[in-house]
Amino acid sequence: MESLPLGLAPSCSSTVVLVVGDAVALALSELKKFTRADFDLYHPGGALGIKANS
């Protein structure tokens, strides 16, 4: 059931998918022993890369 009165626009379901996706990503990063060096490889620039390299 979606939170909007008409129940047409996805709100709850999109939030659930986001949570599940994040959980899967975190679990896989732990299983694969994803390191800071791996992160730097995929995010060399931009805000995430700058933060990781500081």
UniProtKB/TrEMBL annotation:
Establish whether keyword Membrane is in the entry.
Answer: no
Highest taxon of the lineage: Bacteria
The answer to whether UniProt assigns keyword Oxidoreductase to this entry is no
A GO biological-process term: carbohydrate derivative metabolic process
Q: Which UniProt keywords apply?
A: Isomerase
Cite a single GO MF annotation.
isomerase activity
* PANTHER family per UniProt: ARABINOSE 5-PHOSPHATE ISOMERASE KDSD, PTHR42745
The protein here is known as Phosphosugar isomerase
Q: Which organism is it from?
A: Shigella dysenteriae
